[in-house]
């Protein structure tokens, strides 16, 4: 193709661009209302890079504030309140989480990762009883910090899917925590993996009932339960544990909306 032809083709293209301005992409121009009163235009996401230390600190504060807001007021808590609790501006919040769904998803991901980590820390303990007790203490503390998660899991399909995946990862870890303590003779031999649900149900009810009055009371209740689980103090139990099928039925009924 000659230089003359190339020259005129380029002129026509420039003219066409002037007559028909480039249409911006929907992603570039979509304005999110993100459950607050201002509109924010979101730019296309750049490739993921490690956050700077100050940016990571901001993200951690936003997630902590979101957990507190969801625990106090449910997932309807406005993002302005979360930003105030994190001591960041709305622009900073948007840079980390462009929609409220993204924020909720990050809260779930962090909480579930912390539960998995708590179980792994328990298994790393040489003393199996200390590992078992330490796991329950960390798990109850996480429950208290993330009381709003039950609403997310109960009302959102994505939350339920994540919860199922987390439980699938937790089951073998919990079984090993139990087996190790029983092998060392410190956990009563008749404690079944399905009994762990009884422990969490009881602890969860205490956490919910006393959060506004005595938010640390769950520690006393856990101490009482652990004394009843010690191997040397065990006496025969009057009822067998739930079967896995029964546990699934009870759990499904408990999650069913009223």
Shape category: elongated
Number of strands: 2
**Number of discrete domains:** 2
Largest sheet: 2 strands, antiparallel
Integer average pLDDT: 81
Structural class: mainly alpha
CATH classification, class level of the largest domain: Mainly Alpha
Helix content: 55-70%
Tell me the name of the CATH homologous superfamily of the largest domain: Tetracycline Repressor, domain 2
Within the largest sheet, what's the order of strands? 1-2
Order of helices and strands: HHEEHHHHHHHHHH
Radius of gyration: 26 Å
- CATH topology term of the largest domain: Tetracycline Repressor, domain 2
Q: What CATH architecture of the largest domain would you give?
A: Orthogonal Bundle
Number of helices: 12
Distance between the termini: 74 Å
Please tell me about this protein's structure.
- With 258 residues, this protein is an all-alpha fold.
- It has 2 domains: 29-98, Arc Repressor Mutant, subunit A; 100-255, Tetracycline Repressor, domain 2 (Orthogonal Bundle).
- The protein has 12 helices and 2 strands, in the order H-H-E-E-H-H-H-H-H-H-H-H-H-H.
- A two-stranded antiparallel ribbon has the order 1-2.
- The protein is elongated.
- Residues 1-45 have low confidence and may be disordered.
